[in-house]
Design goal:
It is a single chain. This protein is about 35% helix and about 20% strand. It is α+β, with helices and mostly antiparallel strands. The protein has a seven-stranded mixed sheet, with no helix packed on it. The chain has a five-stranded mixed sheet with strand order 15-16-17-19-18, covered by helices on one side. Strands 9-10-14-12 form a four-stranded antiparallel sheet, with no helix packed on it. It starts with a helix and ends with a helix.
Length: about 625
């Protein structure tokens, strides 16, 4: 595998030509940028992290390409204080103006340039609207000794901490110099040090062009431990041992991914396990995946999340959705790739169980939206909406099902060859649904009308609901789980069920297969037999707490409050708060818990929960 990484770039492009080439940049209504006029090609960032003021301040130097001698550069900002702007290395002062605020999008920053300008310097500081930034007090961290800062730039939050062209269809390389308190350590989605220095000044370099949403920074009391030749993990000191144990299979996952779809092109693959307020399971920031501590179950049972974020190194980071309307091109491909990695590392049965759980989530999501809802399409129309609305199970699991269907119809070997060529052909470029479908038809369908009829490409991409040719994952392990549920429902004591050595997916399926409504005695029996209320596994706790809420199981309320106030992962928060809000008593409980928990949550999570609870901040 090392030899593959060291191959000359030219060799990667052999046999990768295609008549379907994406436009350099597609229009993105969620950005003020006008890259068809002037496009940013490189960012040089020089900032200082001030925990007292909860502020980043410094300079963003933007290398630009002026395509037709335009005299203005258009950037995205939101809540930034722009102190001054200069052009060129000589730092000549220039005029600038901020446009009127637009909901979700912020303010357009318009800078006067000259036809020959190739460098623009923006001096700025972040403000209270910097929703990408989460400033944590020591009490909100694992070790409770030092403050912590992390960013979350996806989907359009990079503009809240860096003036930039904040569109996934625009790529730039970047370098950075970050000054932070000397007792802390700064890391970014770039080449990182693996040893803390005494100066509190860290420099970074990302030589592969990336979209702005993959800009990432974390600053805290960190330690590093190697996981292998090209992987490692950063965490707070007290978490390091647990994290290194949990993530021990990372190198195996990298090797499995490379065997499927070609060399890993980003150098190292490191992870940072963040404090519990991180709003996602993981974020695929190149070279440094940001991960939630909720994956640290103690038995390596939740690390398929690593397979997912690693897969993004091809699907998303390498070939990127041009706009957020095409979000499924990132997540559907990644979900498919993740399960192929899972199959290679953990076996086919594990991958099928994960696919069955995803199928359940997809059907529930379609039920929630309604089968005729436009939000059940793969290609979305997010006009006038926050692109974060694209983050549903549709993009992930309907996208996965579409790709699995193609695999089943053409054969795995042929489909793998197609995907490998797809990643090579469009590496470091953006992609739209329309262009992908054109490429699919040219490279794989090749005019085969019978194959086209079997797959029904346009129906999958552009129509609502779930086509009736959707693949059906099969799991013998889940069949056994369902038999145990039936046995319990017909009188067999819970403690006598055949559940020894069940994996996390099996426990999740067991909990999902239980009756929606149960008596207190039944809940007592299940908890006594399986210790759900004491589980250290976040996925199992989450499934259990759904039953706690629906069945008003008061013995589980303390655990419910503890869970909601100890982590900020939106995947768990949103459905639990939604269930609580369905009854008046539950809504009151939810608001009481939320008042306590909200200061710990990231803005990505609070924006969702505020709406559910009609919360007035």
């Amino acid at each position: 595998m090392k030899k593959l990484i060291l191959l000359p770039w030219t060799l990667l492009w052999i046999s990768c030509s295609s008549s379907i080439q994406p436009d350099p940049i597609d229009h993105d209504e969620h950005s003020f940028a006008r890259p068809e006029e002037v496009v940013v090609t490189h960012l040089d960032l020089d900032i200082e992290v001030n925990f007292t003021k909860k502020e980043l301040t410094g300079k963003a130097s933007l290398s630009i390409k002026n395509k037709k001698n335009f005299r203005q550069l258009h950037l995205d900002t939101r809540g930034l204080a722009i102190h001054k702007v200069t052009i060129g290395k000589e730092e000549k002062s220039t005029a600038f103006q901020l446009g009127n605020p637009v909901r979700y999008l912020g303010q357009e920053l318009i800078i006067d340039i000259e036809p020959s300008t190739d460098l623009v310097n923006v001096y700025y500081s972040t403000g209270a609207e910097a929703d990408a930034l989460q400033w944590l007090e020591p009490a909100q961290t694992a070790d409770k000794k030092h403050p912590f800062l992390f960013t979350q730039s996806q989907a359009i939050l990079a503009r809240t901490w860096v003036p930039c062209q904040d569109s996934p269809g625009i790529r730039m390389t970047y370098s950075a110099r970050v000054k932070c308190p000397t007792e802390l350590w700064a890391v970014m989605s770039a080449e990182n040090d693996t040893v803390k220095n005494d100066e509190g000044i860290y420099t970074f370099k990302m030589t592969n062009p990336i979209p702005a949403y993959l800009l990432a920074l974390a600053v805290g009391d960190l330690k590093f431990q190697s996981l292998g030749q090209r992987s490692g993990v950063y965490t707070e000191p007290s978490v390091l041992g647990r994290a290194a144990y949990e993530l021990a299979d990372t190198e195996k996952m990298i090797e499995a991914a490379e065997k499927l779809y070609g060399p890993y092109r980003w150098g190292r693959y490191d992870l940072i396990v963040l404090p519990p307020s991180f709003p996602f399971g993981g974020m695929e920031n190149p070279r440094l995946t940001f991960a939630t501590p909720t994956i640290l179950a103690g038995d390596r049972s939740l690390v398929s999340l690593v397979a997912h974020e690693l897969a993004h190194s091809w699907s998303g980071n390498l070939v990127t959705n041009a706009t957020w309307n095409d979000f499924w091109l990132n997540e559907g491909f990644t979900c498919y790739f993740e399960r192929r990695i899972d199959e290679a590392v953990f076996g086919k049965e594990f991958a099928e169980m994960e696919a069955k759980l995803g199928e359940h989530d997809l059907l529930e999501q379609i039920k929630e939206f309604g089968p005729d809802s436009a939000d059940t399409r793969l290609w979305l129309n997010l006009h006038g909406r926050n692109p974060d609305d694209a983050g549903s199970d549709i993009a992930y699991d309907k996208g996965y099902s579409f790709l699995r269907l193609i695999e089943e119809k053409v054969g795995r070997d042929r489909f793998d060859q197609f995907l490998k060529k797809y990643f090579n052909t469009f590496a470091f470029q953006s992609m739209t649904t329309k262009k992908f479908i054109a490429y699919l038809r040219e490279e794989l369908i090749q005019g085969d009308l019978e194959l086209e009829k079997k797959i029904r490409i346009d129906e999958w991409a552009y129509q609502t609901g779930l086509p009736d040719n959707c693949p059906k994952p099969q799991s013998d392990a889940f069949t056994n789980v369902e038999e145990q549920v039936r046995s319990w429902m017909t009188g067999k004591p819970a403690k006598e069920l055949m559940s020894t050595n069940w994996s996390t997916p099996e426990w999740r399926h067991f909990l999902r297969s239980l009756p929606a409504t149960m008596k207190k005695t039944q809940m007592d029996e299940l908890d006594a037999a399986f210790k759900f209320s004491k589980s250290g596994n976040s996925e199992i706790i989450f499934e259990w707490l759904n039953h706690v809420i629906v069945n008003k199981y008061e013995a589980g309320y303390p655990q419910l409050e503890t869970f909601l106030t100890s982590m900020g992962r939106r995947k768990f928060l949103k459905p639990l708060y939604q269930k609580l809000a369905e009854t008046q008593d539950g809504l009151q409980m939810a608001k009481k818990i939320y008042a306590k928990a909200r200061p710990m949550y990231h803005a990505v999570s609070t924006s969702t929960i505020d709406e559910i609870l009609k919360w007035k901040a």
